[in-house]
Design brief:
globular; Amino acid/polyamine transporter I; 479 residues; single chain; membrane; AA/rel_permease1; transmembrane helix; 2 strands; 20 helices; mainly alpha
């Protein structure tokens, strides 16, 4: 068999050598909290403004479209993760179903996704943190503001985004301390985050004004280039807002650390996706109904801005404070996923094997977590929120497409294999996920598509030069 067609044995996919095994400590409540913690975050707290700027009030349609595509992908993930309860998510499924070369491209894309998501969330958190410091100075005279040069990256007139770097290393330290401890703290913070969004909906919905929805679709439906050089439209917004929905794939990276994966993974993935879709639609409706999108579309903290403009400074403060406290749950979930993707690719020999050592005391991969922290902090220190969110989406869309293809290939190749969770209407759900992801990818900014292509060209070079020869499967082992 050609190297690029080598496949993992599904029947042995959970067998790993001593010292490279993750510890099973998580239950379904941890997974649902991990999913909601990942999904409800920067997307709704900050990117709703970016989306409204691109689509106007029709950002509601953008949320709906992105949600449908993600729901289809989530169903595919639920079936595959319960069939193959191993760390690695879409990368592992592709390795077992489509072959090593496709798996490498998917894994390389996931590295892009998770690294950029963590960077995006860190930048979004920094915006709320700096805003909170400014509020303290304005209202209490506390001289606690950061110098402008250290409060934002070069794109925003600063030099280095120090808060984004600090929160990245803080989360890395928490993950190194232990998976179960991290997941428990995450669950507590998720509750605070949901309460804050509930407060926003309760305050903003009574201020709903239908006039704010006119014109409903000022920039049209498909992606189009405006006079200011910015690509707008419902689909252009959906391609960015898509970032706000994914996160359930971080649950699938926890498969190897789940006590009862056959039951808990499907509950975690589907449960978190359904719950978050309902929350998002309510928040988006409250936001665009309470205020013209032109007012909050450019803000780094749109929900807090809406509260202040409606005359509720206390609610604005509460949302800002909760964002500061709870946005790290998104960081934690995606940082966790990133470190596990790196870990599994290292364990398979596609990346240096030394990175896949597990600390015997904490049961966590310390080396790969620290390596991830350095990479992500470097990005977060200088990155621009909307651009890195779009590029993260490109990596995710590639992974979601691969998972949907794996679902259909396995249904055809191995229809009798036991499936703890069966995706309903698989031959409808799979194609909808694939075509939806491809259309969303086409709707991304052209520059994003080029950067994604360049990233994968680099990935192919790395695979040909290093990974193809050092793969565990290439040496006759069990990956």
């Amino acid at each position: 068999m050609h190297a690029w067609l080598r496949r993992k044995d599904i029947n042995r996919i959970t067998e790993h050598e001593e010292g490279r095994r993750l510890v099973r400590t998580l239950g379904w409540p941890h997974l649902i909290a991990l999913g909601i913690g990942a999904i409800v975050g920067t997307g709704i707290y900050t990117l709703i403004g970016v989306g409204a700027d691109k689509a106007g009030p029709a950002v509601l349609l953008s949320f709906m479209i992105a949600g449908v595509v993600c729901a289809c992908a989530a169903l595919a993930y639920a079936e595959l993760s319960t069939m193959m309860p191993a760390a690695g998510s879409a990368y592992t499924y592709s390795y077992a179903v489509l072959g090593e070369a496709i798996a490498w491209v998917v894994g390389w894309s996931l590295i892009l996704e998770y690294s950029l998501v963590v960077s995006t969330v860190a930048v979004g958190w920094s915006g709320y943190f700096v805003g909170f410091l400014e509020w303290l100075q304005t209202n209490f005279g506390w001289n606690v503001t950061l110098p402008a040069a250290l409060a934002a990256g070069p794109h925003a007139g600063g030099v280095l985004n120090v808060p984004a770097i600090v929160i990245t290393f803080a989360v890395a330290g928490l993950l190194i301390a232990g998976t179960r401890e991290s997941a428990t703290l995450n669950a507590v913070l998720v509750v605070f985050k949901l309460i804050a969004l509930g407060v926003f909906i309760a305050v903003a919905l009574p201020a709903f004004d239908a006039a704010n929805l006119e014109p409903f679709m000022p920039f049209g439906f498909p992606k189009s280039l405006g006079a200011d050089g910015v690509e707008r439209g419902v689909m252009a917004a959906a391609a960015i807002i898509f970032f706000a929905f994914y996160g359930f794939d971080a649950i699938s990276t926890a498969a190897e650390e789940t006590r009862n994966p056959g039951r808990d993974l499907s509950i975690g993935i589907v449960g978190s996706m359904v719950g978050c879709t309902i929350i998002y639609m309510l928040v988006a409706l409250a936001a665009v109904g309470a205020m013209s999108f032109a007012v909050f579309g450019k803000s780094a903290e749109p929900l807090a801005l809406i509260m202040r403009e409606l005359g509720h400074p206390t609610a604005a403060l509460a949302i800002g404070v909760v964002a500061i406290i709870a946005l790290p749950t998104v960081l934690l979930a995606f940082f966790y996923g990133q470190s596990r993707i790196f870990f599994v690719m290292s364990r398979d020999g596609l990346l240096p094997r030394g990175l896949s050592k597990v600390n015997p005391r904490t049961g966590t991969p310390v080396a790969i977590t620290l390596f991830t922290a350095v990479l992500v902090a470097a990005l977060a220190g200088v990155a621009r929120l909307d651009e890195i969110a779009a590029l993260a989406n490109a990596g995710t869309l590639a992974a979601f497409t691969a998972v949907a293809v794996c679902l259909l290939v396995l249904r055809h190749r191995d229809p009798e294999r036991p499936r703890v969770f069966r995706t309903p209407l698989a031959w409808v759900v799979g194609p909808v996920a694939i075509l939806g992801c491809l259309y969303l990818f086409w709707s991304l900014p052209s520059r994003t598509q080029l950067w994604f292509l360049a990233w994968n060209v680099l990935g192919v070079v790395v695979y040909l030069v290093y990974s193809r020869r050092n793969s565990v499967l290439a040496k006759g082992g069990v990956a």
